């Protein structure tokens, strides 16, 4: 969230917005009644600014503004790339393949306004997404900006015209005054009117020109615009003119900034500019100058300034790079910056600032993927492999839930690399990359993919007569131990610990220690498992690494479970869950809720109230499954986890009948957002939409009650002020949630819930909610 009181990613906007009040009011009202609006108009006319102002007025659970322009130059500007981009921007943590249903599932129950900016770069793909969301997510409204309409059913088009002359003059004066010019003098100068008329009232052109007034004056500016650029369109000539009036280093920085896929941070542009020959002590002044000239935009609402460029300005900078033949050099500098960024993170993630390290990498994900794309298209596959390997080694994709996207990128680069292997060094490098991709597949439960990738890696080593390398030993050991449940994997993990040497591989060595401890926890050797777990915990504590400590607690809980030390198991998993909740580690919580269910089920024989305990264990298994589904993880694809779940289920069924077990599991699946509270015995909030025992939203409950009264879809639509088709969509979703096939069954459901409410409503939990 960047604007107070608004959930989502709406950027703070403090620059003057002049005129267009009628258009703003009309569009805002329209968005309150229709679900799809496209703002159209020529470049520089102010579509994005108008959209931003409209979004600040809407009422919704969240407002998201996503720039499609970031995909414009990517080699794979297709639907799959768009889905991954949307998932990243919406903060969806999902480790499976990027597909449209991930987006739909995330949005379909939310009252969200989704703004898609600069759609002209990917019109067919955006059109398909919008069509699907309009049907499958009935509470989502979409505001698009595009130089062309999307041609979607139900689309309302709002043409954004240039500013009328009085508004253009006012905007010019506001920006010129902000740059240091005298407001009164400008208002009295007839040349200001002349300048704004020659700029056709285009806001971008007006802003760029106004930034030059302190140096030139309105009269000189009017002459320049009239004489030098008479044959060009207004937006083209003012951008070109603004560029030509920049000093050489400002022009160079303009071109360098245009290479970024998204908004960028000062350290990034400084690193690249310095490598390009600009003195490092000049970069801040140059950036400040370009901000004052409206070439760069700045957003400091999150505490750290992010700099961006409007689409037309960015395109002009890239055209100049191409014209000068510098595009390969600057792309190379961008690649080197990204490569250094992820390499540093991979080497230094294990420590007190590991959460900050992973967050820093995640913030740069658009640039990382853009760099990989350029490496692939330019044939620099070794750099693409190195970037992706270090990205995985930084652990950021695990924490932030982007392993599906990274797996796709890894597979793409691996496939392109096989035909390019020319020597032993290439073969070893590709083997290490395939092995790491195999390890990623192991962690999300894709055993077949893991086996295929590890086999290809080992085949490369054999064909090129290469010795065993640490990444292959580690990945294969992890596959055998966690994927297949084989005792032999432990020896390989022990060997990998020795092969990962040097300070740059401290994190890799620690990961081998971690997986080795987990493997021992599953293998049935209690004393060896305790020793391995203690070693792992001691390393994590010594490193003062909070994420690593949470996983060490998880491993210790597993070992205590196997040793039937219930006190230690309960204590370790509780500490683990508290740490993960504090870090918002959704990846770790998925594993911990599963393990918590096993620990609860394992204690049934000595429980004071076995049925309550069994219901809790079943509930937690349902919640764990819901988390895994949400994150795109299949832990039962790992044999030890499948065995652990089966064992817990068998213990539960010894206490509860099949119907009671299924009911508790289904309830946990519906209410998984409260899983940590349930596991820890904390109070579960009452009355929240997520906490309803049947999993229905408030709107869905309204629909059920009206169906129970015998109303048709058209009659319900009239009462709720929605369309009949939306009512039908609600009814279908409700039936799916409740497992019924006929509308008549909804009347029975309404009656049951009415009696439950009369009896005092929902309890905090369907069992005695004590700690595990």
UniProtKB/TrEMBL annotation:
Domain of life (superkingdom): Bacteria
Name of the protein: LuxR C-terminal-related transcriptional regulator
Domain HTH luxR-type: 689-754
Organism for this UniProt entry: Paractinoplanes hotanensis
CDD domains from the UniProt entry: LuxR_C_like
UniProt xrefs under Gene3D superfamilies: P-loop containing nucleotide triphosphate hydrolases, Winged helix-like DNA-binding domain superfamily/Winged helix DNA-binding domain
InterPro entries xrefs: AAA_22 (IPR049945), P-loop_NTPase (IPR027417), Sig_transdc_resp-reg_C-effctor (IPR016032), Tscrpt_reg_LuxR_C (IPR000792), WH-like_DNA-bd_sf (IPR036388)
């Amino acid at each position: 969230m960047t604007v107070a009181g608004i959930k989502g990613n709406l950027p703070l906007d403090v620059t003057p917005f002049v005129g267009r009040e009628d258009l703003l009011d009309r569009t805002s009202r329209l968005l309150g009644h229709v679900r799809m609006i496209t703002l159209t108009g020529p470049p520089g006319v102010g579509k994005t600014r108008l959209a931003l102002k409209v979004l600040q007025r809407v009422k919704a659970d969240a407002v998201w503004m996503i720039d499609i322009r970031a995909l414009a130059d990517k080699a794979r500007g297709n639907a799959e790339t768009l889905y991954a981009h949307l998932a990243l921007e919406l903060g969806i943590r999902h480790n499976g393949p990027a597909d449209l249903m991930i987006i739909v599932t995330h949005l379909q129950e939310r009252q969200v306004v989704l703004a898609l900016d600069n759609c002209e770069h990917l019109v067919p793909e955006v059109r398909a997404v919008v069509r699907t969301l309009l049907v499958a997510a009935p509470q989502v409204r979409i505001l698009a900006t595009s130089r062309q309409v999307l041609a979607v059913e139900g689309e309302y088009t709002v043409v954004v015209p240039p500013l009328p002359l009085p508004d253009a003059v006012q905007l010019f004066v506001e920006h010129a005054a902000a740059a240091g010019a005298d407001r009164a003098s400008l208002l009295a100068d007839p040349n200001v009117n002349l300048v704004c008329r020659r700029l056709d009232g285009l806001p971008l052109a007006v802003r760029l020109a106004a930034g030059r007034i302190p140096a030139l004056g309105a009269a000189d500016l009017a002459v320049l615009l009239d004489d030098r650029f008479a044959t060009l369109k207004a937006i083209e000539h003012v951008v070109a003119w603004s560029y030509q009036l920049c000093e050489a280093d400002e022009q160079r920085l303009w071109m360098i900034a245009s290479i970024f896929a998204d908004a960028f941070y000062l350290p990034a542009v400084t690193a690249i500019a310095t490598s390009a020959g600009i003195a490092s002590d000049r970069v801040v002044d140059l950036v400040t100058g370009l901000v004052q000239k409206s070439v760069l935009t700045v957003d400091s609402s999150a505490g750290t300034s992010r700099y961006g460029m409007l689409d037309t300005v960015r395109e002009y900078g890239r055209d100049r790079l191409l014209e000068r033949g510098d595009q390969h050099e600057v792309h190379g500098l961008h690649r080197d910056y990204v490569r250094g960024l992820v390499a540093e993170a991979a080497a230094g993630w294990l420590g007190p600032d590991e959460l900050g390290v992973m967050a820093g990498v995640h913030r740069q994900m658009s640039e990382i993927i853009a760099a990989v794309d350029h490496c692939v298209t330019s044939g620099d596959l070794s750099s693409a492999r190195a970037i992706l390997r270090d990205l995985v080694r930084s652990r950021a994709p695990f924490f932030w839930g982007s392993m599906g996207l990274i797996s796709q990128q890894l597979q793409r680069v691996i496939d392109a690399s096989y035909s390019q292997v020319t020597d032993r060094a290439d073969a070893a490098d590709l083997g290490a990359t395939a092995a790491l991709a195999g390890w990623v597949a192991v962690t999300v439960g894709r055993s077949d993919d893991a086996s295929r990738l590890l086999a290809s890696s080992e085949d490369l080593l054999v064909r090129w007569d290469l010795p065993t390398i640490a990444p292959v030993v580690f990945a294969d050991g992890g596959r055998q131990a966690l994927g297949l449940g084989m005792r032999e994997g432990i020896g390989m993990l022990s060997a990998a610990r020795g092969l990962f040497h040097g300070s740059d591989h401290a994190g890799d060595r620690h990961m081998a220690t971690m997986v080795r401890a987990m493997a021992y926890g599953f293998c049935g050797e209690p004393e060896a498992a305790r020793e391995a777990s203690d070693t792992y915990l001691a390393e994590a504590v010594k490193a003062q690494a909070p994420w690593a400590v949470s996983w060490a607690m998880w491993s210790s809980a597993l070992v205590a479970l196997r040793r039937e030390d219930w006190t230690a198991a309960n204590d370790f998993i509780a500490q683990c869950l508290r740490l993960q909740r504090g870090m918002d580690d959704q990846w770790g919580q998925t594993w911990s809720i599963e393990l918590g269910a096993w620990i609860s089920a394992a204690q049934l024989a000595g429980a004071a109230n076995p049925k309550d305990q069994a219901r809790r264990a079943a509930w937690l298994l349902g919640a764990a499954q819901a988390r895994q589904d949400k994150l795109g993880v299949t832990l039962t694809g790992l044999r030890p986890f499948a065995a652990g779940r089966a064992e817990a289920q068998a213990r539960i069924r010894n206490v509860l009948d099949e119907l009671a077990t299924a009911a508790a599991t289904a309830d946990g699946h519906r209410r998984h957002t409260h899983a940590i509270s349930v596991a820890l015995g904390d109070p579960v909030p009452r009355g929240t939409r997520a906490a309803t025992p049947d999993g229905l939203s408030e709107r869905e409950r309204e629909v059920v009650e009206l169906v129970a009264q015998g109303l048709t879809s058209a009659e319900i639509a009239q009462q709720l002020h929605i369309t009949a088709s939306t009512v039908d969509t609600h009814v279908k979703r409700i039936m799916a949630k409740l497992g019924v096939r006929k509308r008549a069954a909804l009347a029975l459901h309404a009656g049951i819930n009415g009696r439950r409410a009369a009896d005092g409503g929902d309890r905090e939990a369907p069992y005695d909610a004590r700690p595990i």
